[in-house]
Amino acid sequence: MSQNFADIENFTQFFRRKIEPKLHSFEKQRKRTLLLCNITLVIGVILQLFFLFAFFTSSNSNSNSIELLFAPAVITGVIHTFIKKKYTKKVKAKIFNAIFSFLGDFTYIEKNEYIVDRSKYEQIPMIGKFNREPDIDDYIRGTYKNLPIEIEELYLRYVYHSNKHQHERTVFDGLLVTVPQLKTTNATIITANRKFHDIEQLKDEVKLEDVEYQKIYKTSSDNQIEARYILTPKLMEKLKSLNSKGITTALCFIRGDIYIGIKTGKDMFEPSITKPATDISGYKDIINQLKETLQIIDILQLEKKAIL
């Protein structure tokens, strides 16, 4: 049963009652993980300094030794990431279903249990071109107010070559929310924060009456009338509010299906190893971010009902 956002403060009580007791068992493991990570970093720094000293004092330094010069740093990074991921994977599997149940009937699905459909992202013009396999770090599926919904933490890359060197560009790094058939329209509409890069805009830009909104968001569509019909003043006010909170958002409507892209700039669903396992702040950030997204869906759904 989904929550009323006026009572979002109740998450603290919900957390203390249903989540916190499950987290106590992770605290010892978190401390052990943090200790191992710190030991790994210390050993890595010592080895790296030794390699640097040996390189600059040796008369036999050559191109082959240069390639191995930063091997300790690379190996340390890999080991550090492995140790951290092992801990966070256990926390996610145990806790996240309970966390997301606060917002609705959601299920957290582990990365290795989710089948990535590349074609889905290729047909969303909001995302832009990519040529590497999609990386889905986290996947949440469920029902919100009788609507099917998918939430993916998505990472897409575009690799190209220039002057015999390979370059990599991030095309998308954030949350992608999918709600099928929320609006009855055959139009394709994109409205995206101008900070939201790598968007394949449609040819025709939509001129809206809200001048302030147009300064922040660029809107394009193959149907100007439908675009103005769907981008109501209430929806535009919500999107302007997200921008004022530093949340970079884009919406894409394709034949009634809605895709909401949010660039977060960080791993949203990664439990911290530096804070106590029972620390609520990180989980509050997750709930608040998803709350903002679900409020967009609320506006679209309510206005649909009003029109009908």
Please tell me the overall pLDDT: 81
Largest sheet: 8 strands, antiparallel
Strand order in the largest sheet: 1-2-3-4-8-7-5-6
Query: How many domain regions?
Result: 1
Which strand-content bin applies to the residues? 15-25%
* Oligomer classification: single chain
Class per helix and strand makeup: alpha+beta
pLDDT < 50 stretches: 1-6
Radius of gyration of CA atoms, rounded to a whole number: 23 Å
> What sequence of helices (H) and strands (E) makes up the elements?
HHHEHEEEEHEHHEEH
Number of helices: 8
Distance between the ends:
25 Å
Q: How much helix, percentage-wise, in residues?
A: 40-55%
What's the shape? globular
What does this structure look like?
It is a single chain. This protein has 308 residues and is of the alpha+beta class. The chain has one domain (7-307). 46% of the residues lie in helices and 23% in strands. It has eight helices and eight strands; from the N terminus they run αααβαββββαβααββα. The protein has an eight-stranded antiparallel β-sheet. A hairpin with a 2-residue loop joins strand 7 (248-254) and strand 8. Helix 1 (10-57) runs antiparallel to helix 3 and helix 7 runs antiparallel to helix 8. The chain is globular and about 75 Å long. The protein starts with 9 loop residues before the first helix and ends with a helix. Mean pLDDT is 81; it is low at 1-6.
